[in-house]
Amino acid sequence: MIKQVLVGVICGAAVLTVGILIGHFGITKTGSSAPSWVTDVTKDVDESLIDKFLSEVDNIQIQENLRELTKVPHMATTAGDEQTVQFMLKRWQDPETGLDKAWREEYLVYLSFPDPTNPNKVTVVSPSDTVLHQVREKEKNYTSDQNDPEVVQPYAAYSPAGHPKGKLVYANQGKPSDYHLLNQTVDLRGTIAITRYGGAGRGAKAINAAPYGVIGVLVYTDPLDINDGLMSDTSETYPHSWYLPPSGVERGSFNGQYGDMLTPYLAAKEGTYRIPVENITGIPPIPIQPIGFEDAYILICALGGEAAPASWQGAFNCTYNFGGPGFKSTSAFNDSDVKMDIFNQEKIKNSSNVMGVIRGSVEPDRYVIYGNHRDSWVHGAIDPSSGTAVMLELTRVLGRMVKQGKWRPRRSIVFGSWGAEEFGLIGSAEYTEQYFAKLSERTVAYINVDIAVFVFIVKVAAPGLDSTSVYDNWIRYSNRTSPNHGTIPRMGFLTGAGSDYAAFVHYLGITSMDISYTYDRSKTNARIYPAYHTAYDTFNYASEFIDPGFLSHQAIARTAGNVLIRLADSLVLPLNCSDYSESLDDYLNTAVSLYEHKLKAWKISMEPLKHAVASFRSAAAHLDHVIRTSDLAKETPLKVRKINDQLMLLDRAFLDPLAFPDKYAYRHVIWASSSAGKPTFPGLADAFASAESSGHSRDWDKVHFHLSVLSQAIEGAAQTLLDVI
Amino acid sequence: MIKQVLVGVICGAAVLTVGILIGHFGITKTGSSAPSWVTDVTKDVDESLIDKFLSEVDNIQIQENLRELTKVPHMATTAGDEQTVQFMLKRWQDPETGLDKAWREEYLVYLSFPDPTNPNKVTVVSPSDTVLHQVREKEKNYTSDQNDPEVVQPYAAYSPAGHPKGKLVYANQGKPSDYHLLNQTVDLRGTIAITRYGGAGRGAKAINAAPYGVIGVLVYTDPLDINDGLMSDTSETYPHSWYLPPSGVERGSFNGQYGDMLTPYLAAKEGTYRIPVENITGIPPIPIQPIGFEDAYILICALGGEAAPASWQGAFNCTYNFGGPGFKSTSAFNDSDVKMDIFNQEKIKNSSNVMGVIRGSVEPDRYVIYGNHRDSWVHGAIDPSSGTAVMLELTRVLGRMVKQGKWRPRRSIVFGSWGAEEFGLIGSAEYTEQYFAKLSERTVAYINVDIAVFVFIVKVAAPGLDSTSVYDNWIRYSNRTSPNHGTIPRMGFLTGAGSDYAAFVHYLGITSMDISYTYDRSKTNARIYPAYHTAYDTFNYASEFIDPGFLSHQAIARTAGNVLIRLADSLVLPLNCSDYSESLDDYLNTAVSLYEHKLKAWKISMEPLKHAVASFRSAAAHLDHVIRTSDLAKETPLKVRKINDQLMLLDRAFLDPLAFPDKYAYRHVIWASSSAGKPTFPGLADAFASAESSGHSRDWDKVHFHLSVLSQAIEGAAQTLLDVI
């Protein structure tokens, strides 16, 4: 489950300024009568150790990790998943290259599967009940991978079972505005809507449809959105290129919130209270099923009715009509219905996280957490095994240094191989619920590397090992101008729930980073790598088309490991609060220009927010100054710890469990998701959009309320950056 | 506002084991080449400094503090209140004996006052509208104090204004069961109910009445409940004794939640969103007014109708009848109504906290907070000035040591003189809202000393200065048997919101303590000291009857200061998690015996809770063992800090903002208030009582839900006590 594709994303305090901070603090020289721990507690990150780490990260090891991880499909809780659990444990418990400790943690979680003995079917049936067309049930085989009996049939997890039959209509991306427009021309009651991926969340395509009387939804990937228009599997698509073959189908979870849906805010253990299934919200109320564009082509090009607008047209060589509803009278499907037979079953299954740790030497009670999910939809070579292969190479190199006694990080490092992410970030979310207090108190940062490499297009090199560094490459293809630093690499914000960072940043307020190597968007319009969530996301695909030679994987391993070691070993945490302040300034400027005029009319002042952002700016500058002008290696380690606690806990100060009453497990007032689509404070933007749309004074009250929540959180965060007393 | 009277109350980790921990850690001797800070960071509490502190605490200074503080009435936000603000600031900014820094913090809070130009009136009016009796508007003068024009008329803060007129009935304590019983005999529609203090919260007496059609409520203090039955002001009551004169009236806040009611969870600043006044809950829906027992006697003894039950009878020499409704036909009030004319006005006023700090030398980012409210209803000699007089003596002695360069605590000490406590703990609650993140992250403990001394009956002595120590006295009059420690002084639990500790423990999860010197309950039945919230709570009353010579005040100052210094200076925090575990064991045993059988019938297992408590027990024993067997003064200060963080943050681990959806600002799953009246987990007890009463399966679901919340919180807390990784 990856909704955002970013070169490197960091939430909260930026790691960018690593270079500014490191090297500043030497090692205090102490005489023989000083306690032995004095040297340890004042030690800073060792650059030569980082160089050694970078040189030992091996592309071929990553390749072999990936080969092993993708031998069989490993959907959550299947036998293939258990095989990867055992593999991770074996590697992390290896006496030569393993971690200090590794173990599994289990949760009983609510999942959804097709019935293997009764596959989901989509057919075109004539008025006399003759089956005129049957949609392909499994993807076409090109390598032997697609023939593995463990390849799960394409399906929409959490779609209800059901057997709707009705006239077909085309509803573009299934957004509210799409159904609204379609409904002006076609009576949607009793219809089946075909939609394409993109524009709206998966489940939303069904949720948005139901109020219009639509009884079933199909979804497919249009070649325009994924293949730059290419469609032919004899020459254009995989195995001839990285593009999606016509029978390829994107599977996915069709739920709207993250974590186990039966146990909100509670770890899903035996005996845990489970809400009644009928109380689950955010899942499709009507059956929905994904299909390949091979079948979508046949269905859409036969549709009758008016031509859909230009923006609704895809790559097929026909006009996309709305549907009569139903097919053209001139087509073979004249007067026929589309019938869906969905046999999905929900089950409570035992899902495992695999955990491993390297104990910290000086501050074992400070955790740097590094994680990725382990479960895939099919073989999952890119999603998620590219990230897992990278993680295993990281742990091999670091583990060996630890086992050989050459290194032990200052802080503890926790590795997490999460289960059941594809069903809604379940393993990581349950973990944060179970260990809420401990993780909140002690976690310095969370690093997520899920899909490590999206595609090999830009020239890749690792820092120090080639003429083009990751930094240079990054700044060339994606940059921004910072008032403090000039031109610097651009980083996105973790405002969504695209991967396992969600619970860490949104629920726990832990500074988080999501790292991946992505592609030059000027060279393809693919919304994601084309084999995403299909039976073609295999080792062959990864090694032939995504990263032959695995040098991009190596670059990611080096970059992520570099960040990891600096977070674990730096005397002063490489997190910069002035960079945070830049983001708040941008958000404030946008908010003022978008909202202030209208808010004044409702007698709502933005002054408290302006004051809060100004307080934060000045407090952040102050702490920066203290860090820059102190020789902390010569002072009491409790002074360094004090500053590190200020940096570590900064994101926690932005949490308010009551800030988003309608958003499950979103508590961070700066980085929460938003539907308003404005680059500003999410809760303010959403509340303003609601109030503007309804015009109700109680909705303007909600804007005022959220403005107060936000101002108080920012003022409170600023307070934590000032001198402590 | 004091609902609980306790010898000394501590929530969470117990300070009791101070004696066990101190003296264990010596000072590491280091050679001249060790950094200079090595000696500082390993230093433990200095016993000779505590002895010095104890010897310098002066009873006469406390007496003079009290004299100054009680010169004029100082109700919140009045001129008298401002006078005390200036006095506190002057003392805390004194160059010889003041603190490092002192300042004021202001909030715009929602208060309720009578109209000085239009006093509230309660009258008996005949059918022809003749006033037959008028209730006294002000308390009778005995010393000049009661004649001060700033003495506020007795009133019920947050009672609505209104002019109900109706037949009088007697409703005992105004509990739901009282109105229920009364309603079986008397038609309550249109009546005025007279109730006595006790048994139900102040506001609840009106809230419980309204559903029966009662239109107004009077409340008085029965001599049985406060005066051991005595009534005569010519010989028995103040100024002849500590007992309440017949005209004395207990004022009070009649709201049901703490903090400013217009700004829930938000600090009440200019521009802060305020909820509509009509959305306030928990305040009287009908007018209510307190009166003295002098007038209550006249009204109650004239009531007609059946005799009330024995348990409803008070100390008056007449039978307490239900009311016909209304008066006996044989009384002068035959056929007459009681009329209430209430002119209370709500106002948003500027209330100040006065804050002061002593900066910590080694861990300035760890706070020990010591506080008391400053505002009173009238002169407030006991409530709260006895506590403030003690606090000022503490800060004088400590401040002088700091100014003379003789001492600086390891951790920072923050003093708070809270405003507007009497209206609902407002100043302290707003403070915790404004500085939520900073206080949550850094506060080691909160110590509250409100009413320092309730009465001078038991023999008092300070540790080391007399033959009977506070400890010996305490253990003699109030003790319990602990599996770990044998017979020890008994401490209560801070489960309510009786004073300013509420926001610290319930909202922030900060280990808190409420200290006072109270009386031997075998010697009086008074529910509290009799002058409580009346115009008789004066310096004269305090020095004549409560603590002549101020030796009890001195004992409290010594005890509180001793605890404060140990919390601020001990190398390892004097907080004991095994004592916490004893309380959880007791709670569990009670819960199992009360609930397990019935829960099984609903297929709800208590095993997760049992497992959680066992995890906690073993983790607490483990941490205790680590502390006891380590020579922490010889190890890295970061190891001590790690343990101290475990102890400091233990209570935070029990917070769940979603645990009590119906209780405002209660988040601590162990110490929250409970209406079920069982000595066990409060949310479980309340949920069980609701389910048992309704029998609805959705209410049993709520029991199961809370059991999961509770188990997860306890398991999570246990995790924080284990080895950190």
UniProtKB/TrEMBL annotation, chains A, B:
Transmembrane segments: 5-27
Compartmental location: Apical cell membrane
Residue ranges annotated for the PA domain, each copy included: 165-252
Family affiliation: Belongs to the peptidase M28 family. M28B subfamily.
Cofactor(s) in the UniProt record: Zn(2+)
Subcellular location, principal: membrane
Transferrin receptor-like dimerisation domain residues: 604-721
Membrane topology: Single-pass type II membrane protein
MF annotations from Gene Ontology: aminopeptidase activity; carboxypeptidase activity; metal ion binding; metallopeptidase activity
Entry keyword Mitochondrion: no
Protein task: Aminopeptidase with broad substrate specificity. Has lower activity with substrates that have Asp or Glu in the P2' position, or Pro in the P3' position. Lacks activity with substrates that have both Pro in the P3' position and Asp or Glu in the P2' position. Lacks carboxypeptidase activity. Lacks dipeptidyl-peptidase IV type activity.
GO-annotated cellular components: apical plasma membrane
Keyword terms of this UniProt record: Aminopeptidase, Calcium, Cell membrane, Disulfide bond, Glycoprotein, Hydrolase, Membrane, Metal-binding, Metalloprotease, Protease, Signal-anchor, Transmembrane, Transmembrane helix, Zinc
Name listed for the protein in its UniProt record: Aminopeptidase NAALADL1
Domain (Peptidase M28): residue spans on this chain: 353-542
Pfam families xref list: PA, Peptidase_M28, TFR_dimer
Domain of life the protein comes from: Eukaryota
GO BP of this protein: proteolysis
